[in-house]
Queue: 2 jobs
Job 1
Amino acid sequence: MTDFITRFAPSPTGPLHLGHAYSAILAHDMARAANGQFLLRIEDTDLQRSKPEWDALIRQDLTWLGLHWDGPVLRQSMQLTSYDTYLAQLAARDLLYPCSCSRADIRAALTAPQEGHPHEVYPGTCKQRLMSDRKPGDALRLHLDRALALLTDDFPRFVETGEAHKGTHQIDPSQAHTQIGDVVLSRKGEDIVAYFLASAIDDARQDITHVIRGEDLFDFTAIQVILLTLLNLPVPTYHHHRLIRDDHGKRLAKRDDARAIATYRAEGKTPADIRAMIGL
Ligand code: GLU
């Protein structure tokens, strides 16, 4: 078996833009250079925003860019029930609680906006609730204090090879509390696993040895490493790369249709032009 397996894991909620192309090309090239494998995973657990048309366009764009993935494509929506086993394992260890807060409730309960944090840390309104009290429509959250209490003997570590955070990182409980908090693992109103858990489980399921993705996801790595450790799944090596920004220094978003690969394709650009534009 090869000792380098990586993946590109887009959410099909919009077109691929230059930032995604950078991530996919980097992962593909690193896999080929290591004589390893490059896998494709479609992260379509957001059933409202994910569209088959975007999935199809993503695959066309990747093929046009000359990126050929190995093996079958894993589509998360095709295996939703498989995540329940893992949620059940966490529930059996008393690590989940039901939550009925809306986004507006959470915002109102926060004393100050979490400036500079990529997501809102949950203030803990429903923390005292028990699983036996779960109502239809409740989300499920990880009880971070209890999770960390199980790991105190030796907080998990992970290796990062990306420039900005290169080195071995050990989970820092206070940082986990202030940056991440009690994340949602199963979404409100839909019995559907959330990104943090699904993505980490599938990295293990696909035997991913190297997770290559944008810098913006670095802060979430700790929670994924905590979840993998609690579930007795292997922790991959992580490589968080620089983000492609627009002329104003803003990170590209799905809405930046002007930078969509499909737009460049239609304008007659070549895959080599795209590589040049993103400095690869
Ligand atoms: N699906 C996520 C996204 O499109 C990427 C997840 C990951 O690479 O871990 O932003």
Note: Residues 18-33 form the longest helix (16 residues).
Job 2
Amino acid sequence: MRVEVLGIKIDHFSMQETVAHIQEAVEKKKQTWVVTANPELIFAAGADARLKQLINRAQLVTPDGIGVVWAANRLGHPVSERVTGIDLLEALFPLIGKKKWRVFFLGSKPGVAELAAQKVAEQYPGVEWQAQHGYFQPGEQAEILDRIRKFQPDLLLVGLGAPRQEFWIASHPDLATVNMGVGGCFDALAGLNKRAPQWIRNIHLEWLYRLLKQPQRIRRQMVLPKFVWQVMKQGKNEQKKHTRRVR
Ligand code: UDP
């Protein structure tokens, strides 16, 4: 059961269920692509048919952010809760440590993915990792792909920013058992971008906190009112169709 928000099919799973799906995928070696779909990505997919098609091929698409949770509710198919990339990683790391999974961190500025991985491994000593920054030249890619293949990751985290990371994962689907686009999560894990305090997250205002800390995000967040408008339009259209059918 998925809810379609502006053409993107979102899973209704809770955080715990999402973690369980990923665990099963790794244990049964079922190739799985996890997309954490925030309103910006969903909106971008509305203007890019190829991106929309790709995301709808992913095995798990989580509601990343309160905007998507609101949209699902508004459209009459509530999802359990918000499952953001960073929260999902934080929920996965204890399991990864316990199971000694191999994780490849790809993305962010030089040194950041390593620092993020080191911090994670310090906290969860079982995590086996390798890292590579995300500012490589096209000519360096073959060597990086080779390194990832040799490492045989259970989990490949790709933090190249959306939607570049989605296209990248779609072009290299067989590098790891589970592939996941993580945007700027390495920056947060490395401690470069502090996350909002828990009480701010609890009242669903993390987006505002990030905006105040990084005012340059305003251009991206300008998409939000348009996202809301389009979801309301989708809701009305669906209602009209339903009324016509009932008559
Ligand atoms: N990034 C990268 N290579 C690039 C461009 C960006 O590795 O060529 C990284 C960047 O350093 C940052 C991440 O991609 O760590 C994008 O973070 P942002 O918060 O903008 O992405 P979001 O989480 O919103 O997708």
Note: The radius of gyration is 18 Å.
